[in-house]
Amino acid sequence: MGTRFAAPASAGAPLGDGASVPVLVIGTGYGGAVAALRLAQAGVPVEMVEMGMSWDTPGSDGRIFPKVTSPDHRAYWLRTRTKAPVSNFFGFPIDKDVPRFTGVLDAEEFAGITVYQGRGVGGGSLVNGGMAVTPKRERFGSILPSVDAAEMYDTYYPRANAALGVGSIDPVWFETAPCYQYARVGRKHAQRSGFAWTFVPDIYDWDYMKAEQAGTVTRSALDGQVMYGNDAGKKSLVRTYLSQALATGRVNITPLHRVTTVSPAPGGGYVVRMEQINTAGDVVATKNVTAGKVFFAAGSVGTSKLLVKLKATGSLPLLNSEVGKGWGDNGNVMCGRANHMWDATGTLQSTIPCSGIDNWAAGGAFAEVAPLPTGIETYASLYLSITNTSKRAEFSWNAAANRVDLSWQTAWKQDSITMAKTIFDKINSKEGTIYRTDLFGVYKQWQDGLTYHPLGGAVLNKATDNYGRLQGYPGLYVIDGALIPGNTTVNPFVTITALAERNIERIVAADL
Ligand code: FAE
Q: Coiled-coil regions in this chain (predicted)?
């Protein structure tokens, strides 16, 4: 099946100090991968710079990535203690000390929220659940109001879904697969309370998933791998857009390099300053590269932090006042329910969710039925809700602390909790069950301190023109989740990918 290990994504020599390149892409997540592939196909050589590692070499345990139940140094980005979203079990804290390393999951802490992000060649595609959801068309106007819905649904969503390798679970197999017992329990409870329940597409290789269940291949999703990476089965960007981009022979990726500054070059183009780091996070070299065009694809947080700093510190003073604004958490909030003993959710749980509960129209919440892959029976149903919150935060430069702050307040999650409760209060009442209080702290019902779906900070048609061109600086573009103003009504990466496809097509035609 050829899915055991991810194909190596980095090729060629790292970028050298003093190099001059036509196009430099900052970051190798969805937006960056789309930009690199389409530019390369148009004949343009592309240099990609990625602060994380290239995840292509197994460790001493034979795995590239650790399991969610046994995080080690590979799990977290430069932390000395894990910070698991489900932080407690039966009330006991489960976080533990780990060696500081350029691990794959960043739990980036701002004053009011922890933002989880992927680090490495492939960005968020390395750590996410792969849920690949196209929003309902009637909701698109609220997601990206300046974008023509017809061109997105006729051309760019289909293009993105095809290139990402999105597929659907076999509904017949689903009915008996032990690893989706938790999802069937989730369905039963949703439907008994009258909610619309739906399968959710995913980029996981569903044939490989079946083979994992049958025991004929090495297990990954069925062996507790997801948030700290998947060794097999997952069609991350490394296996889709990035491998296609590298196959053109025009794309080079330089990992473990962090871009710190972009400023106009005296002779035209831009000077991009970057730090080369080692796996302990120490800076081992600094480099200046001149690029004709620069694509910011460092993710909503990475791109926003860079732009806000560069505007405030005088590198790019002409950026407009929309930079840093319009940031949202996609309304993420998590909860668990305690099932009765006759509603066991299973000791073997696929880490890849396959279903959701849609109460958006009536209650403002879309909830994915999530796994709790502990290997023991927990009688718990876990859910990640995406909610229709209107709260938006702003990034700002904190000169005294030499960092970018985010104005998000934890109390703002109350709106999301209220919306998620339109689903789970009703289910609990119907089933005679209660919320779990032991998963997110001691006696805490809601995980209201995080997001997996950062969006916005350089919003389309505000901080940029309607195709991601940054105001004031020809040749500078934003092409990632920073363009989307805070909410996609569903999981975001298909929309990030489709928008990037739309924008790069215009940029290739008009600017190159
Ligand atoms: P992203 O994929 O974050 O890529 C940005 C890249 O830039 C990263 O590789 C960074 O390391 C790199 N970078 C940042 N700053 C710099 C710098 N200064 N210099 C060099 N490189 C830099 O951005 N979404 C879904 O649709 N479905 C899911 O099932 C899902 N599950 C998720 C589960 C988890 C645990 C997490 C964390 C996220 C999940 N997401 C999911 C969100 C999704 O992965 C995310 O929206 C996209 O990855 C964002 O894509 P971008 O291209 O914006």
A: none
What one-character-per-residue DSSP string does 14-37 give? PPPTT-EEEEEEE--SHHHHHHHH
pLDDT digits (tens), the chain, 512 positions: 333 444 444 557 899 999 999 999 999 999 999 999 999 999 999 999 999 999 999 999 999 999 999 999 999 999 999 999 999 988 789 999 999 999 999 999 999 999 999 999 999 999 999 999 999 999 999 999 999 999 999 999 999 999 999 999 999 999 999 999 999 999 999 999 999 999 999 999 999 999 999 999 999 999 999 999 999 999 999 999 999 999 999 999 999 999 999 999 999 999 999 999 999 999 999 999 999 999 999 999 999 999 999 999 999 999 999 999 999 999 999 999 999 999 999 999 999 999 999 999 999 999 999 999 999 999 999 999 999 999 999 999 999 999 999 999 999 999 999 999 999 999 999 999 999 999 999 899 999 999 999 999 999 999 999 999 999 999 999 999 999 999 999 999 999 999 999 999 999 999 99
The highest-level CATH class for domain 20-511 is alpha beta
Q: Which two tokens stand for residue 251?
A: 């794309």
Single out the residue of 299, 261, 316, 313 nearest to residue 457, CA to CA.
299
How many angstroms separate the alpha carbon of residue 227 from the centre of ligand 1? 12
Cα separation, 31 vs 11, in Å, equals: 20
* Residue 91: count of CB within 10 angstroms of its CB: 12
Q: What are phi and psi of 436, to 5 degrees?
A: -70, 140
Scored b (16 or more CB within 10 A) or e, 330-359 reads bbbbbbbbbbeeebebbebbbbbbbbbbbb
3-class DSSP state for residue 237?
helix
Cα-to-centroid distance, 125 and ligand 1 (Å): 7
Residue tagged 């730090």 (tokens):
275
Helix (H, G, I), strand (E, B) or coil at 77: strand
Tell me, in angstroms, the distance from the centre of ligand 1 to residue 426's CA: 33
* CA angle 462–464–468, rounded 5-degree value: 130
Which atom of ligand 1 is found nearest the CA of 52?
A: 11
CA of 180 to the centre of ligand 1 (A): 26
* Cβ(130) – ligand 1 distance below 6 Å: yes
Neighbours of 279 (CB within 10 A): 15
- The DSSP call for residue 464 is B
Q: List the catalytic residues.
A: 368, 453
Q: Domain ranges in the chain?
A: 20-511
**The model's pTM:** 0.98
Answer whether 131 contacts ligand 1 (Cβ < 6 A). yes
HSE-up (13 A, CA, CB side) for residue 42: 19
* Ligand 1 binding pocket includes 124 (Cβ within 6 Å): yes
Atom of ligand 1 nearest to the CA of 123: 9
